[in-house]
């Protein structure tokens, strides 16, 4: 099979309260990546503003926007100008009182190729997302684009092998994770390392188990908890790309804005799957317990 190459790009940045400044930084990164040949560019989770889910504040629903809306229009114009496919991450206002954490894929012509609504919604200290986001209802459905079939997932989804597997079974050619994850500043260095290792390992495992490249874009910087109840979040950056055997292809720093452009050979997935045929050997007749919350015995 002849190789199908695709240059993917990542924009890693810090975000503040100024939406225009945040988008300007994202767009500057997009332009830089396009100048280096990127055809598909991934932005981090909720890149238009700070990570507002550290507290439960009804006034923050005013940050949400419709899709299509201002951000998709602005980024769509950039996608059209540069001829690139963009994956953006937005706080979606679907209807009064109904909101989602949504990734939008913008085609080279600036139109919306599709969207994915985050399926797994956390509710932990500093990550009170269930207050803001309804669980996604579009399923684990890849989005077809001019550069390939994209398996787009969002942050907390990255811990679930079922999500990655279902995207792979539906024909995704690569998995993309816009992300916002960081340390509690009160954690010691050993605990921080354990958390980071777990985060990187589980996503490399998705690449290995499905024979697909995985692209992850995380934010950087310290964001204080407005309520003062926690120590805030130090986002750990380290956006990265791995190949279909989990091999490291590129990674960004933990604490600096960065752009990464990485050429992927999507044809390698076919070769890897021929030698490591996990999909062939799956015991689909024996997995009946997976839809259960827990198998009580």
TrEMBL record:
InterPro entries according to UniProt: Aliph_Amidase/BUP, C-N_Hydrolase, C-N_Hydrolase_sf
CDD domains: CPA
A Pfam entry, by short name: CN_hydrolase
Domain CN hydrolase: 6-266
Molecular function (Gene Ontology), one example: hydrolase activity
This protein's UniProt keywords: Hydrolase
SUPFAM superfamilies documented for this protein: Carbon-nitrogen hydrolase
This protein's name: Carbon-nitrogen hydrolase
